[in-house]
Amino acid sequence: MIPFEWEEPRSLKEAVALLDPEDSSIRPVAGGTALMLMMKTGVFAPSRLVSLAKIEPEYSEIRVDKSGALKIGAMASLSALEQSAEVAKHFPVITRTLLTLSNVRVRNVARVGGALAHGDPHMDLPPLLASLGAVAHVVGREGTRDIAVQDLYVGYYETVLAKDELIAEVTVPPLNGARTAYMKCTSRSADDWPALNLALRWDGGQGAIRNPVVIVSAATEKVTRLSEAEKILAGSNGDEKTTRRAGDAAVEEVSFLSDAHGSAAYKKELLRVYLARAVRQAQGGTP
Question: pTM for the whole thing?
Fold first, then answer.
């Protein structure tokens, strides 16, 4: 391995100052689960790594505020999110998702901010948080900005984040009785990466589907919102005929990746099947 600098700033501001907007070989490290794999395989050779492990503890906090919104510090571990009683009470779909996310060792180390900023379409949190209307609060040399999670991704391992920007916190708005679902299909390969991730949310309880949000990833090069499928689902009761039409529309509005986890044709059928299953899960389950 090529030698590199290792920095341990004591604040988020110091961490941002150690990054370089013109140098992609300088990277922040949160949990490092994905970055270390890239370094071991020779995909990435850093000149400097900026560890976020010692920045202010407030960036590891998880809380529900007075409005009912969930505030997640970017340095909160996936295990902490999984084990949070407030998350389980107010956002149980997040807790359920984390139980199937990778394994306990990875969840103990991986951080929420890193899972979002990495840009890997196979990750579970980006599509789920995108469907819930989550917003990432970003800090950089030029100031701060808020970015909807669904707008973070522009391509395979590509995000809109500048090289000197860090996600500081994520806000998930209150569910207010919304119906939710998250499903994925894995190919049962050695790495167990998903062939499809699908997240779904709509307003209200029983009755007609209102303001649906449908997000797909893993089968696609980035987290993608399925607007045509949403139009078909909106106002319906989620019956079999409607979900079939929505599935047909969904496979026409995105491009699919053929890889070790399945062909594009296979993933199209997965999307059709899992969209119908997600609707049924949201109709019958807890939010």
Answer: 0.94
Q: In angstroms, rounded to a whole number, what is the distance separating the alpha carbons of residues 34 and 242?
A: 39
Contact by Cβ (8 Å): 87, 70? yes
**For residue 100, which phi and psi values (nearest 5 degrees)?**
-110, 10
- Within its chain, how far is the Cα of 97 from the centroid? 11
| Burial of residue 88 (number of CB atoms within 10 Å: 0-12, 13-18, 19+) | middle
Per the domain annotation, does 54 fall within a domain? no
What is the domain range of residue 277?
Answer: 179-284
Same-domain check for residues 113 and 76: yes
Question: In this predicted model, what pLDDT tens digit does every residue of 227-271 receive, in sequence order?
Answer: 999 999 999 999 999 999 999 999 999 999 898 888 999 999 999
Q: What angle do CA 212, 214, 219 make, to 5 degrees?
A: 170
Q: Examine the fold and report which residue of 153, 175, 197 is the final residue of a domain before the chain moves on.
A: 175
